[in-house]
């Protein structure tokens, strides 16, 4: 343990392995535990209870995620970059709720982040930690959004950024990377192979790793979405929070956020998580059901952001699900596309496949009667639909064709029910 006078990260005690319990100083760069387990940042809640009254946060004029800076593991004195990450809206959606049978349904629109996905919350912390550790280059492998967010946040802070992406990355996500000036390698292989290559490169060249399954600081950024949800609901947790799962960092991060607030007595109860995976790729659910690492063949899914064969944060995700008595849903690509269309039509929020998956999962659980009536449910829309328009157009079909003549319009007008 460090001496107190050397302690630079306020309120953090240490990092602890979730598998073997071994502890590490949190003041250094951290990866996996010696045993291979994932580390978790532990806070001094007793101290925080005294020093951070809830009102102090409420009165903050910072509406980004850095409003919760004292609850984040960034050393004092490090200037955090000033992009507007976080502070996304929580919409009460009456129509959508009625359609799927939930009396209080909310959408947390994470597509409103600077690079249009929830990943910005982790990247913002990653960039600050890279600065703290005096790194000049940040690096990751990604199915798209983690990379786009790292590239954007790095550009805003003038750090160099190197990215490895799998061959199936969407055009929009690729364009984001290149526009933000990242050095991009398209790996001739899948995400798993891109990931392994990136870790070797990071180790060899001493760059800063933004691979969230490995770097324990990153999910601390993701937890801020839970803080916001609670604050937006008047410091209450919802009954359920639905989130789509790939590597498992997002769901684990969200759970950590609720746990923090519960430990601080800022909320009275914890929500239950709803983990949603694509039926063509659901290894985290298999682990929960079968209690082991299953090697079954995967058919894949159009939901690229959650098409993860070997989840890098499986243990944390499984633990979060067990602790929260979570529900699981697996949804087909057709069900995701339907939910995407429904969400757009009834709420004006455009989700990418992985974002719409969470709603599809809630809808499925409602149909099966597994979510009781009268519950308060938050669906985290993790990414914006503009990131992958070709999938969206599969849901909608093409527009009507018309000649530029009013008579042609008149003929159709009668059928439109708009007169
Ligand atoms: C990354 C991502 C997820 C899943 O997060 P994991 O940490 O990989 O489980 C879900 N939706 C979107 C849009 C994402 O980018
Ligand atoms: Zn360990």
How do the strands and helices of this protein lay out in sequence?
Elements: E1 12-17, E2 23-24, E3 39-43, H1 45-51, H2 54-58, E4 90-92, H3 94-100, E5 104-109, H4 119-132, E6 137-141, H5 145-156, E7 160-165, H6 171-179, E8 183-186, H7 191-205, E9 208-209, H8 218-222, H9 224-232, E10 240-244, H10 249-263, E11 272-278, H11 283-290, H12 314-323, E12 327-331, H13 333-347, H14 353-367, E13 376-381, H15 389-396, H16 406-416
The protein binds pyridoxal-5'-phosphate and zinc ion (ZN).
Zinc ion is lined by residues 17, 19-20, 22, 33, 35, 37.
| Record field, number of beta strands | 13
Helix content: 25-40%
Query: Which structural class do the helices and strands define?
Result: alpha/beta
Distance between the termini: 74 Å
Main sheet, how many strands, which sense, barrel?
6 strands, mixed
Oligomer status: single chain
Task: Please give the radius of gyration in angstroms.
Answer: 21 Å
Q: Please state how the strands of the largest beta sheet are arranged side by side.
A: 4-5-13-10-11-12
